[in-house]
């Protein structure tokens, strides 16, 4: 069996207070090669403090979605047993520096039983010493907290039509980009969300905060970086 790296995706950073995060990149309009493999095409990576349990972080990966006006590929959850998801977390040192080497790697696999029911298995989740699994479209629990995989409304917001209009303004002589008219930022015009009503396949799970970001000697928690990859097994 060969392991082929398909996607390296979506870096984000979480502040030392773990009260906010800033997304450094996102990706929804892929090159033809990645676009042809929606089950392994990561859209976004999320990491944020749980709004319900102060001792938990929530991590999520979305994949297999497209913005309008592109054709829809989001009518069902992508359950591909040949794709391995790896969620990577890098902790900064006491000075706030990252080495871009994962301190934590969480492995996520999908599979179907003989009846065609899809399930998800998680391995190496901080706060859980063992693998745990459950069926998709249902919330299930492990030692680290709850987990879920299924089809959900895409949480990403972007005005794809406005972006296309902005690119057109660069193409016209004497223009250097017209953000105001392209994105309709005047006159109280309604905002356009190209992902409204579109779905994405989602993997979401909780992690133990102290295991992911143990406090430093100064009593603060380290900054975190997170990214995800997909690898496809093939003959």
Describe this structure in words.
With 235 residues, the protein is mainly β. The chain folds into two domains: 194 residues, no CATH class; 33 residues, no CATH class. It has four helices and twelve strands; from the N terminus they run E-E-H-E-E-E-E-E-E-E-E-H-H-E-H-E. The longest helix has 12 residues. The termini are close together.
Outline the fold blueprint.
Layout: E1 2-14, E2 21-23, H1 32-35, E3 42-49, E4 56-63, E5 83-91, E6 104-112, E7 118-123, E8 132-135, E9 140-142, E10 145-153, H2 160-171, H3 179-182, E11 199-208, H4 209-212, E12 224-234
Antiparallel strand pairs: 1-2, 1-12, 3-4, 4-11, 5-6, 5-12, 6-7, 7-8, 9-10, 10-11
Share in helix: 10-25%
Whole-number count of domains: 2
First-last Cα distance: 5 Å
Shape: globular
Low-confidence stretches: 1-11, 15-21
The whole-angstrom Rg is 19 Å
Count of separate DSSP helical elements: 4
Order of helices and strands: EEHEEEEEEEEHHEHE
Taken as a percent bin, the fraction of beta residues is 35-45%
Overall pLDDT metric: 86
The strands making up the biggest β-sheet line up spatially as 2-1-12-5-6-7-8
Q: Strand count, sense and closure of the main sheet?
A: 7 strands, antiparallel
Number of strands: 12
Helix/strand structural class: mainly beta
